[in-house]
Each structure stands twice: as structure tokens, then as C-alpha cells.
Amino acid sequence: MKLIIAYIQPDRLNSVKQELYKEEVYKISVTNAMGCGQQMGYTETYRGVEVEVNLLKKVRIEIAVNSSFVDKTIEAIIRGARSGEIGDGKIFVLPIEECIRIRSGEKGEGAIG
Amino acid sequence: MKLIIAYIQPDRLNSVKQELYKEEVYKISVTNAMGCGQQMGYTETYRGVEVEVNLLKKVRIEIAVNSSFVDKTIEAIIRGARSGEIGDGKIFVLPIEECIRIRSGEKGEGAIG
Amino acid sequence: MKLIIAYIQPDRLNSVKQELYKEEVYKISVTNAMGCGQQMGYTETYRGVEVEVNLLKKVRIEIAVNSSFVDKTIEAIIRGARSGEIGDGKIFVLPIEECIRIRSGEKGEGAIG
Amino acid sequence: MKKRLLLIAVLAVLLSPAMIFAEDVVDPSAASALDAIWLIVCGGLVFFMQAGFAMVEVGLTRAKNAGNIIMKNLMDFSVGALLYWAIGWGLMYGPNGNGFIGSGDFFLASGDHVNWFFQVVFAATAATIVSGAMAERTKFTSYLIYSVFISGVIYPISGHWIWGGGWLSELGFHDFAGSTVVHSVGGWAALMGAIILGPRVGKYVKKDGKITVKAILGHNLPLAALGVFILWFGWYGFNAGSTLGASYDGAALDMAKVAVTTTLAAALGAVFAMFTSWVMNHKPDVSMSLNGALAGLVGITAPCWVVSPGSAVIIGAVAGILVVLSVEFIDKVLHIDDPVGAVSVHGVCGVWGTLAVGIFGDLDLLGASSRGAQIGVQALGAASAFLWVAVTAGLLFLIVKKTVGLRVTEVEELRGLDIDEHGTESYSGFQIFQNV
Amino acid sequence: MKKRLLLIAVLAVLLSPAMIFAEDVVDPSAASALDAIWLIVCGGLVFFMQAGFAMVEVGLTRAKNAGNIIMKNLMDFSVGALLYWAIGWGLMYGPNGNGFIGSGDFFLASGDHVNWFFQVVFAATAATIVSGAMAERTKFTSYLIYSVFISGVIYPISGHWIWGGGWLSELGFHDFAGSTVVHSVGGWAALMGAIILGPRVGKYVKKDGKITVKAILGHNLPLAALGVFILWFGWYGFNAGSTLGASYDGAALDMAKVAVTTTLAAALGAVFAMFTSWVMNHKPDVSMSLNGALAGLVGITAPCWVVSPGSAVIIGAVAGILVVLSVEFIDKVLHIDDPVGAVSVHGVCGVWGTLAVGIFGDLDLLGASSRGAQIGVQALGAASAFLWVAVTAGLLFLIVKKTVGLRVTEVEELRGLDIDEHGTESYSGFQIFQNV
Amino acid sequence: MKKRLLLIAVLAVLLSPAMIFAEDVVDPSAASALDAIWLIVCGGLVFFMQAGFAMVEVGLTRAKNAGNIIMKNLMDFSVGALLYWAIGWGLMYGPNGNGFIGSGDFFLASGDHVNWFFQVVFAATAATIVSGAMAERTKFTSYLIYSVFISGVIYPISGHWIWGGGWLSELGFHDFAGSTVVHSVGGWAALMGAIILGPRVGKYVKKDGKITVKAILGHNLPLAALGVFILWFGWYGFNAGSTLGASYDGAALDMAKVAVTTTLAAALGAVFAMFTSWVMNHKPDVSMSLNGALAGLVGITAPCWVVSPGSAVIIGAVAGILVVLSVEFIDKVLHIDDPVGAVSVHGVCGVWGTLAVGIFGDLDLLGASSRGAQIGVQALGAASAFLWVAVTAGLLFLIVKKTVGLRVTEVEELRGLDIDEHGTESYSGFQIFQNV
Ligand SMILES: Nc1ncnc2c1ncn2[C@@H]1O[C@H](COP(=O)(O)OP(=O)(O)O)[C@@H](O)[C@H]1O
Ligand SMILES: Nc1ncnc2c1ncn2[C@@H]1O[C@H](COP(=O)(O)OP(=O)(O)O)[C@@H](O)[C@H]1O
Ligand SMILES: Nc1ncnc2c1ncn2[C@@H]1O[C@H](COP(=O)(O)OP(=O)(O)O)[C@@H](O)[C@H]1O
After folding, report:
1. B55: contact with A, CB 8 A cutoff
2. Average pLDDT per 10 consecutive residues for chain C, totaling 113 residues
3. From the CA of A28, how far away is ligand 1's center (Å)?
4. Ligand 2 atom at minimal distance to the Cα of residue A30
5. Is B57 in the pocket of ligand 2 (CB under 6 A)?
6. Interacting residues of F426 by C-beta distance below 8 A, sequence separation 6+
7. For chain B, which domains are there?
């Protein structure tokens, strides 16, 4: 079982969700994040003073999947999130050792989906 | 050392915290999240147009524990969070390779608690 | 590749960022979190009733780095975040199995930075 | 005062163009223009208090119920205006009254527009007070039903006793702008509502047989503060407008004096509520200080015309202390859950204001035989209003509870009334930490 | 009415100190004081409606555009006031008019301050209505250009026809406080703007040839509700102030009657919009109910003086139903994206109010020969205003589109206008979930 | 003007029922009613400006200090009203003055309610201005102490010089509604407070000996905008109400003219501040444009009655430019931290408005011998007010600093004053990104 963490542009969330649905990945968790990557931020002014905004708004997605799903999940995320511009985001894959469904107490691979 | 990530219903946070305290797990981190699982969301209307809300509000808990604590932590979370309904949430366990207390620089198992 | 997760005091974020820049760690992700550690919280009153605030506001940092960067990243975080007081925070290191840059599809160590 | 002038005005409309204002030095046409300007402007200000109530209640409750609170405030005014037009005004000021209840002039047949306009906003104020105490757990349909009865029946009848020429006014009871007529009536209805509804989930937690009181924090103090400033602003219309005219002899002095006593009482209410909360809880509490200003305003509402500025200072200060003690007592001892302190502000301080008429009032202006007698009458009036409202509003809420149901389910309450009652979110896009 | 009184007032200034008020029982000095107090206070209230519009629009759109909306509301008033002073007032009320367009008294040479002040806030209201319908995607510079023309030219000319003594007023067209002059004009300009701009990104999604309508939720219902209460409050100035004086014979009765009809129509608008949305979408919708109150207010604006309170109840109720149906029709059938419902509230209900004058109005007050004739004239007036605005505002927006451009880029729209147009964030520090 | 009329009014009360208004064509009873309506309504509007100040300050600072700002605004009014009743009014308008300081009529013994009410809201305005400049770092207790002295002593004394019949008014200094008396006095006290307090943590960062200026963003621009609209609305009371009566001969014309000049100056202030910020920083800044409207209002406050609408346009435009330059100068060059721009808006534009009286004023109305002389007197008045306030407020803040302490600790400042000073959070439940 793997935990896939992806940082994407906020406006790409809907298309990522749609691509995931096509691959029958229905379970995801989403949080707000601020990120700093190759995309360098921009400058605002407030009352005449420059404000450097180098932490940009991002959406962080977490998806726990069985190992056999990893590749197609990653591909779906890429299809949904890629615009070809700097700032498109990044995906990290981490190992999961155990997964438990709280409602039923079910464990392991069966509990993930 | 393990990192326990749990997604629970927001209104269960207090009872989860209480169950954790009983097991002498005092250190936790909590974030807001939006989640999509077996609980399929609901429909709102806004100005006559239907709004599909399929990302539901969840609370995400992170607890780093020594391996010997894993089971009782998981059980405490389940006790606090389970209502038997869809949407109760899920727990993931990930391996931690290192843990450092910033204040003292202390490392490893001793730093976790 | 490792995922470094750090919980720090909100007002330390800027100095942590500066220390990281000095070590040429430019890519980070930041989220809001509430945490409960050795710092026990405080008490507010609202309309004459005491409110226990034991979940304190924290900032959660995530940095994915190649293994060779782990130590200096951790040191930079400690330099930026340490005040010597309870509540300074904690760092966790997790293994990453794969990393993908969404824009280019690039994988592995080259995709991290 | 209110009653006498209003009766004159009503007569003026009914009998016009007879020479009602014979003793008046202002020429009649200018006089009616002066009165109309004054009452319409003041009535507009009192209307604006609806915005104040809405903001105070929204601010002192949780984000997940904000839309519901808005709807309650919008609808109690809207439904209330319709009902007060159809029957309320007739029951309160109808010419064929019997001292207990007025009758006639339903649907405003008399065309006495200027007085109706000024009175309808008072009726709406009484209705809207209840909304705050019942916030965050009341079924919306039930609230609509309640609104029909309070504006259509309950408020007008006790109003008739005092302002409509009824039995209390005959006894010499004085309530210039409505500490009892409006605020206590609203406050006691709020009390009955809060009791019959029960507290919000998580407010009083039983543990080993002991009840722990929990604070449920309001989500937007700036809006609550804005609401208080709006209410204070509107209160100049409420109190000063209650001269019910600007053209009678001495009106100018009355209006100005009322503005002054109102200002000082509100200011002192805020200051003393702040100090009281400071002493009791070691910090100057924001929402209590805001309540304090309102307490001072409610306290001065009845006596604003019959007391000196110096007495207003005392009345406000006492109201400020009282409101803090009352909020804590109702919460910590009685365990009645009133999220915004409506019972304390309007009910308790309304009684204080009513008694203050007797304690500090100018006996000549009151036409009272002795201070003791006046205090007695004032107490009688306050008690009668309490009984009337406790019984009728209590019955109303109990019947609604048994039939339609008064309260949303626990799941709906936890998820928030906005989603379940109105299918919406009030702060779409904002991340709101749900476990509060 | 408006026109007649205003002409008298203008004459009074031009010819003073001649004895204009000869038939008036109020002595002239008191009379001018009464009129000035009334018009300045009411004008102030109408000015305050700018705050109401700003809050409604901010509340019903997304957080990322809040600063831009504020700027549009601030600037259409500010630019509009300058233009209305320089030329608008002259084109509308200038003495050398020809029935189609006024002329003279540019830069307020006559010094008729009191009437100009009351009129400029109306001009600004017409201008600001458009802002809501074009929210969240319009280039700021283009909006500034638009503001110049609407306050300087488009509004004053159709205004001249009706209130400036022009051809429509000659025909007996009656619009007491501006259902057509102000609201329809604003509403139709809003309609043209929304059409020519096109919908917001993501509002109408084409999928397999079928268009799906998406809801884009407003981010702050409490502010929207506050805005509605402010507008309602200001509307007492808008309608009751449109007596244009407080000293003429019968003014007091007129002012009060207008306040009453305004109150009832607004209340019924809110109630019926709520029920309509309840029936259609199974829940009482908050923002629709708020729109309903405004719909009732717009509907009663033209007929407020010539109808009875009973008719006001009907007018408001119909407006409340109409606004919900219209919002859904414009959104779901016409696919025109009007984020706040400005076209439905001001355009559609403005026409309803204008026709209601004919349907419910007192024929004596109107000086009408027959009900049918009056309805005909009202319809003609509504249609003329529509044509005038559709053509001129349409042209204006098309020219701006071809030259400066009317719309921000898609990237700017997604990121929010606050950042790209003004380089700021409106809620710095708040976590806002971006994918909305 | 202000002074003359007020003296008449005071005499009227003291000597009544003597025939003060003998030359007046309005009959005395109607006259006093007109005056009372006007002053109470306008006073109410000026009171409402407190809400405006509170919202502007809350909006332009950070979420973690919102509750503290509310408390400061609520309490400077409340404490101020008490003090102004007890001694302030006596020092300012007391009959036994000596040109430098008034004396007598403490605790409003004269019963001149209508004038006191109108004056107390002005005193409170002066007091509240300071709050914004000292926001986000001042100890609450110290702020309470300050409030006592500004409303009780500092403001009344300089007020006496100008409006109380003191030496500046003797010299012919003219300040119709308080550019100097209220705004500059408040602005200079704000300046001294901001200097003595020092900047917020993180505002001016020293790096390699060079100071970098950082922006600390306001957290709620919609509330700030609402505040500006409320202030603008209230300003009609502030300026037009400063005729101090509605019944004297020519009052109607004066009131209306003031409303017009006020409108135009505010509008132009907003427009020119926007363009200035656009030119200087490449984007039309929202908060600067809001400040611009206020700058225009402050600028027109002194000359609103003696200048033409055309001059008002210029005065507003200059104020709009000035405020942007001044904000940047104070921030970037002087490194004085004024979070909301209070010093620039009220201090600098207050001086500009005072001088504008001399530059643009009608010499007949001013009773001035020559333009140069009048400009000289105006400059003298502005300078005297500056000196008076700089010395007294400076001393006051220094003494407080040495004794009670003026500033919270750095930890408290970082965590937010709401938690440490008041034990509460203003936006409970909202996720607020803390590192701002
Ligand atoms: N090494 C990293 N550690 C943590 N977060 C990262 C890392 N690299 C990228 N991110 C996150 O991903 C977001 C997108 O990064 P981006 O600038 O698009 O990367 P790239 O240009 O390499 O595609 C960043 O804003 C940040 O939140
Ligand atoms: N595979 C997964 N990956 C990421 N998050 C998940 C996954 N499964 C569940 N979650 C999170 O847990 C929450 C609760 O899921 P829920 O619908 O209760 O699951 P179940 O019905 O399996 O108990 C979801 O809203 C989501 O945030
Ligand atoms: N074991 C843990 N699991 C999850 N989060 C933790 C853990 N320990 C600490 N944290 C997070 O780190 C924050 C800082 O903890 P702190 O009280 O400073 O720890 P310490 O006193 O050990 O340095 C906490 O508020 C919490 O968010």
C-alpha cells in the first residue's frame, strides 16, 4: 500500500478529480497548502509598499492506494494537473504499512478502497 | 517509530482526544481536510442551481508514536471516532525513520513523546 | 529520498525559510495546523466561561529532499525554529519511494529539487 | 407620554381637520411636517436596528449557522410587518379597546400611516430579540410560526396595556420608549424559548453527575461590534423618536434630553460591563462590553425622558454590572443556554429600566403621587408583562414543540443549520475549523 | 409628482425670493428648512445605499474579487458624482430642454444645491447596479469608462424624459421614485454588460453538446445580508424622500404613506421569494430571500405614492415570486451570468413596479383618464427605457470591448481580480479554499 | 460660524424665554423643533462614524488584533462621553472662559442638551482617530488612560480657542466643521502616539544597516470599505450639521451647499488617490483609494461652507494626492508606523483643509480683510493646534510610557492582542494563516 501525495495548482483540482474517477480512484483527501517551488511567486503592493508573495497557494492531495493502483493513479494525476507551465506541481509516493477502516475495523488492502 | 494518520468526522475530534488521553497519548497534530470516501456527499442548492458537495469536511490527525504504542493508539482512535456510519474515516500507518525535538535536538524514540 | 515534516511555531516560519535558503533548499510546502505537545495550551475566558485552548496554532512544513540533503535541512530548520522554549516543535523524517515532477514527468532524485 | 401623544395623533387623523393643535404655537401644517419628518427618520433608524440584531447574533454564534440567523432576522421582520398590519396594530391601538385588548383599525383602515410606521418597527424589535436566544438549534419553520404570534398577538396585547391606553397606563405606569413594552417582552419570550428548546449540544456537559459549562465561541466579533454600533445608532430613533412628535410645545427640549440620557447610559453600560468582566475574569471581555452598551441602552429606554443625565449615568452603570452578573447566573447557575445574552440584556435590564423610572424619575413629569407608589406601579407593570409573556410564549413554544417540533436533530445541529435548513454555506471558500 | 415638485423647487431657486409658496400655509422660511432637512437626510440615506450595494455584491461573489468590487462601487459613485455635476444634471434638468434632452445649468451654475444633492445619489444608484452583474471578470479600466458614460449621459437623458419634464412625463407617465428611471435603467445596462462580457469561467460547462449550469457560491452571506438591510434602510430615503419636499400641503401624509407601502412591499417580497425558492428547490434559500426583499423594494419604488398598503402587499408578493423565476430563467434558460441577480431585481422588477402604477394606482392622483390608458403609458415608458438603454449601453460596451477590452484574461480571472487588477488580497491571512 | 451660532444657542437656553430669535422669520417654537431635529439627526450620524472608524481600523490591521481594536473604539467613545459631560464641555464652551480655556457648566448644569449632544460626538471623533495609528501594539489600560485626557482636557481646550469663542476665533480663524478642531487634533495626537510607541514588530527590518520597509497587510478589506462608506455617510451629519441649526435665515441654503461640497470633495479624493497610487505603484490600490475618500472629506471639513462646489473639486483632488504621498513619506522616509494612515488622513489633510479656507474661501462669508491675511490666520491656527497637541499629547504618552507602560510585550504582540489583552479570539473557527 502506498500513500500518494501530490501538490497541484488549485484550479486543477476538478480535472484531477475527473481523471481519477475515470481510473476508478474514488477516495481522496484534500488540504490547502502554500508552496514554494520553481515558480518564484510574484509581487504585490499594499499601501505603496511592495509585498513579496513567494508562498503560493497550492492544493495538497493525499491518496492511499494498493500497490497495483500506484501507476495509474499517478498517470491520472498528471493528466489532470499538467499544463506544461512552471508551478504544475509534484507527486511523492510513500510506503504505508497498515490501513484501517474505522467503521468496520477492517485492515489492510481491503480497507483502502 | 510510526506516523499514524487518521481522517475522522470533525465532531469526533473531542472524543478521539479523550480516548487518546486515557491511553496517555498526549501529542497530536490536527489539520482541516476535505475528503471523499464511501460517503458520497450531498447536494445543496444555491440560487436555484444544484451544487454537488462531494468533498466533505474532515479532520486529519497526525500522531507520531513509538512502535509499541501503535496498537493502543489505533484502538483509541477507533473508540473515539466510530459511530458505525459511513464516513467514520480511515487510519493509515507510515514508517518514520527519524524524529527530532527542535528545542533540545534530542533524536529518536526519546524525542517522540 | 526523504520527506521531512516539521511542526514549528508560526512566528518562526520566516527565519526557517531564511535558514533553508542559505542551505539552498528552496522548495517547501507549508500548511496550517493545530498541535498539542509539551506546551500545554492556555486558558481564555469568553463571556465569563473558561475556554481551554489546548490545541495551539502551529505551522507544518513538508520538504522532500534527496538523502544527502537530509542533515543540513534538519539543521537549518532547527537553527530557524529554536528559541529554547517549550513549543519549539518537532521534526519527522519519512522515506519517499518515488517522486515525480508533474510538468515534465521526470522521476526520482532529479525531480525533487 | 407615548400613549398620550399617540392618542392625540390618532385622534388627529380620525377627526381631522378639527383643530386638535389649538394650544400649539406651531402652525398645523408645519407641525404635521415636523412630526412626519421626525417619526419617519426615527422609524427608519429603528428599522435599521434589525441589521444590528442580525450582526450581533451572527457574530456571537458559530459560522455554520450564520445563514439561518440571517433568515430568522429577515423573516421575523417581514412576517411581523404583515401581521402587525393585519391585526397587531388593531389589537394594540384599535379605538374600541377595553383596557385589556384593543380592537378596530385592522389592516390600518384609518390610514394613520405615520404612527403605524413608527410602531411596526418596535413590534419587529420585540420579535427579533428572541432569535438570538434560540440561535443555533431552532427549526426554521417553527421560528416562522412563532413570529406570526409574537408580532400579531402577544406583543400587541401587552403593548395595549401600556401604550394603547390600557389598564397599566391608567394606573400611571410609565415606559417612555419600551424597556418593558418592547425589551422585556422580547426578553421573556427569549427566556421561554431558550428553556423549552434546551441548550445547544455540548454546552453543558455532564460528567460524573457534575455539569461543566462550556463556552461556545462566537465566530465574528467585528460583525458583533458593528451590530452593537448599529443598534446604538438606531436607538437614537428608538428613544428620541418616542416623543412621537417634534412639534408639540417643548418637543425640542424633550428630544434633546432623551438623546443625552441615552448616550450617557449606553456609554456607562459599556464601561461598567467591561470593568465587571475585568474584575471577575481578569480580562476585559469584548463581547461582554458590547452587551454592556446594549444593557445601558435597554436600561435607559423606559426612563430616558424622566431622568436627569446624572441619573442616566447611574442607570447605565448599574445595567452594565447587572448584565454581566445576569449572563453568568443564567449560564452557570440556571444552565439556560442563551448564546447572545438576550435574556439578560433585554429581559433583566428591561426590568431594571422600568424600575429606574420609579427610582430616579421626576415625579412631576410622571404625575406621580409619591415615589413609593410609582415604584410600586412600575414593579407591577414589569411583573404583569413577565407573567403575560411567560404564559403565552411558553404555551406557544410548547404547542409548537409538540406539533411541528421546535428543534433540529442533533446531526443537523452538529453539521450546522445552514446546510440542513437552507442548503447553503455562509462562508463558501473560507476554511473553517469544524470542531468548534 | 417628482417632476412637478422639482420644477417648482428649481423655479423657487431661480426666481427667489418671489412668492412661489403663496398657496402654502407653511411660512416660507420654515418651509425651505423643512424641505432641506428632509432632502439632505433622505439624500444621505440614499448615499448610504452605496454601502449596501457594495456589501451585497461582495457577499454574493468570491473572496478573490472582493477588493475589485469595492473599488468599482467606490469609483462609480465618485466618478459619477463628478460627471453628474459637470454635465449629467444639466442634461437631465437643465432649463433649456426639448423634451428629449435637457440643457443648461452645467456645473450646477444655478446653485440649486439641495435638489442636485438629492439627485446625484440617484444617478449613482443607477450606475452602481451594473457592477454586480459584471462582477468577477470585468477589466477595471473599462468599468471606469463605463461609469463616465452612464452617469454623464445615458441615465440623465432617459431621466429627462420622465423626471426632467420630457416627453414621457408629458404623456402622463408616472414613476414616483424611479422603478424605471433608476432601477430599470441600471438593470438593463447590467443586462447588456453581462451579455457582452460573457459568463464567468466555469459557470456554464459544455459537455457532449449539453450545457450544464454550475453554481458559483457567494463567499460571505452575512455581509450580503447586511447589505440588504442597509439598502432597505436607505430605501426609506429613496422613496419617501421622493416627495422632494416636506412642506407642501399634504407632504406629511405623503411621506408617511410612502414609508408604509415601502415597508410592506419589501416584507412581502422577502416572504414570497422565500416561499418560491422553498417550493422550487425544497429549501428556503438565503440569498434568494435577500433578493426578494430588494425585489419588493424595486417593485414599490414607482407606485409607492399612488397605491394603498393593501396593493403594496400584492406588489411586493408578486415581485418576490418574479425575482426567483427571473433569476432562474436568466441563468438556466438564457445562460446569462449575473452573479448577484441585478437584472432580475432591478430590470425585471423595475418593469413590474412601473406597470403596477397603472394596475393598482389611484387614478385621481395619477390624473389618468382611464386605467387602460395609464397601463399603456406605463408600458410605453418601460419599453422606451429598455430600448434606450439596450442600444446606448450595448454600443458603449461593444466599443469598449473592441478598443480597451472589457474582460480580464482567463488566468487573471482564475487567480482573482484582486491580485491582478489591484495587487492585493482582500482577506490577507485567512485560509481560503482556492478551488471555488 | 459654528461658534457664533452656538453662542446664540447657549444664550437661548440660558436666557429663554427671552426673544432671541426676534430677527428670525420662523416662529420660535417651530424653529427650536427644526434645530433639534437637525442636530439630533446629524449628531446620530456623527455617532455612527464610530462604527466607521472601528471597521476601517479592524479591516486594515491583522485578524489577531480585531477584538482589541473594537474595544478601543467602543471605550474611547464611552469613556470620552463621560469625561466630556463631566468637564470637557465646560472647558470648551463654559461661559466663564478667558479665551484660552472655558469654565463653568460642568456636568452640563445648563441643561443645553441639544448642543452638548452634537458636540460630544465630535469630541469622540477626535479621540478615536488615535486608535488607528496606535493599533496592534498598545496596552489596553494605557489606551483607556489616554482617552480620559484627550476627551476631558486636550481636545476641549484647543476646541475652546476656535469654537468656544477663544483667541483664535477672535482673530478670525475659520473652521466650519473641524478640519483643525477635530481632525488635526486627532491626527497629531495619533502622530505622537505612533512615534512614542514605535513601530510594530517586523515593520521596519534592519539588515546590514539598511532599513527595509515591510508591508503588514490588513485582513479584511470589505470591512474597511464598509467603514469608509459609513464614515462618508456620517460626514453629512458632521459637516452639514455644523450649521448648528436649521431655522436661522438661510440655513436651508447653507445645509445644502455643505452637502454638495462634501460629496464632491470626497469623490475627488477617492479618484485622485486612486490615480496617484496607480501612477506610483502601477496598480490602483484599494486601501489607498479608501483613504482618499476620507482625505477628501477631512479636507473639505473646514471650508465646506465658504467654498464653491468647483473649489471643493480641487480641494478633494489635492487631498487625494496628498494622502498617498503623505502615507508613503511617513512610512518610507520617516519610518513612523501608522497602520491605517490616520496621521496622513486626519493630520495632514486637516491642515490642508484649514489652509484651503484661506485659499478658496469666500472672503465676505469669512469677514476677512484680505486673502493673504486669512491664509495667515488659518496657518497660525493650524500651527497652534499642532503645537498644543504635540506638546500635551506627547507629554501624556511619555508619562504613561514611564509609568504604566504604553506597549505590550513582543510575545503578546506576536500572538495577538486579542488573546493576551482580552482572552479571546475574534474569528473563532476560521483558519487564519498565522505567519502574517
Ligand atoms: N521538494 C519539495 N518539497 C516539498 N514540496 C515541494 C517540493 N517540490 C515541490 N513542492 C511543492 O510543489 C509545488 C509545485 O512546485 P513547482 O514549482 O511546480 O515544481 P516544479 O517547478 O518542479 O514542477 C510547490 O509549490 C510546493 O508546494
Ligand atoms: N484511500 C484513501 N485515500 C485518501 N483518503 C482516504 C482514503 N480513504 C478514505 N479517505 C479519507 O477518509 C475519509 C473518510 O472516508 P469514509 O468514506 O468514511 O471511508 P469508509 O467509508 O471506507 O469508512 C474520506 O473522506 C477521506 O478524507
Ligand atoms: N508525537 C507527536 N505526534 C504528532 N505531532 C507532534 C508530536 N509531538 C509534537 N508534535 C507537534 O509538534 C508541536 C510542538 O510540540 P512541542 O510541544 O513543542 O514538543 P516538545 O515540547 O516535545 O518540543 C505540537 O504542537 C504538535 O503539533
Report:
1. yes
2. 95 88 91 81 74 83 95 96 90 96 92 86
3. 20
4. 27
5. no
6. D220, D221, D222, D286, F63, F64, F66, F67, F70, F418
7. 2-38+52-112 (3.30.70.120)
Total length of chain E: 436
Mean per-residue pLDDT for F326-346? 97
Spacing, Cα D125 to ligand 2 middle (Å): 47
Mutate to test the pocket of ligand 1, among A7, A40, A54, A93 (most ligand atoms within 8 A of CB): A7
Q: What is the per-residue pLDDT for F436?
A: 59
Q: Which residues of chain E have pLDDT under 70?
A: 1-25, 434-436
- Which CATH number goes with the domain that contains E122? 1.10.3430.10
CA distances from E285 to A32, E104, E229, E290, F138 (A): 29, 49, 17, 9, 44
B64 CA → ligand 3 middle, Å: 9
What digits encode the pLDDT tens for the residues D137-174?
Answer: 999 999 999 999 999 999 999 999 999 999 999 999 99
pLDDT digits (tens, 9 = 90+) for D213-237: 999 999 999 999 999 999 999 999 9
Residue with cell 520617516: F334
C-beta of C61 in contact with ligand 1 (< 6 A):
no
Amino acid at E201: V
SS3 label, residue D204: strand
pLDDT tens digits, D244-275: 999 999 999 999 999 999 999 999 999 999 99
D405 in a structural domain = yes
CB-based contact E277:E288 (threshold 8 Å):
yes
**Which residue's CA is the nearest one to ligand 3's atom 27?**
C35
- The C-alpha cell of E374 is what? 395609464
Q: Do E44 and F236 touch (CB under 8 A)?
A: yes
Q: What is the dihedral of CA F378, F380, F383, F384, to 10 degrees?
A: -110
At E55 the three-state DSSP class reads: helix
Q: Which H or E element spans position F346? A: none
Q: What is the pLDDT of residues A80-108, one digit of tens each?
A: 999 988 889 999 999 999 999 999 999 99
- Judge whether E233 lies within some domain: yes
The answer to whether A91 faces chain C, any CB pair under 8 Å, is yes
CB contact under 8 A, C102 and A95: no
What is the reported pLDDT for B47? 81
E8 belongs to a structural domain:
no
The whole domain housing E168 covers 29-422
Tell me the shortest Cα–Cα distance from D205 to chain C, in angstroms. 13
Contact at CB, F331 and A48, closer than 8 angstroms: yes
**Residue E14 domain-assigned (yes or no):** no
CA F76 to chain CA centroid, Å, is 13
Residues D424, B14: C-beta atoms closer than 8 Å: no
Q: Are the CB atoms for D173 and D297 separated by under 8 Å? A: no
Q: Per the structure block, which three cell numbers stand in for E265?
A: 412591499
Number of domains, chain F:
1
What the block records as the C-alpha cell of F116 is 452638548
F253 touches chain E (CB under 8 A): yes
* DSSP annotation string for D15-34: HTTS-TTTT-SS-HHHHHHH
Chain F: closest CA distance from residue E427 (Å):
5
Q: Whose CA is nearest to atom 21 of ligand 3?
A: C38
In a mutagenesis test of the E interface, which of D39, D64, D73, D74 is the best target, namely the one with the most E β-carbons within 10 Å?
D74
Q: How confident is the model at residue F11, as a pLDDT? A: 44
pLDDT score at B36: 82
State pLDDT tens for residues F78-107. 999 999 999 999 999 999 889 999 999 999
What are phi and psi for residue F278, nearest 5 degrees? -65, -45
Do F348 and F326 touch, CB atoms closer than 8 A?
yes
For ligand 2, whether the C-beta of B69 sits within 6 Å is: no
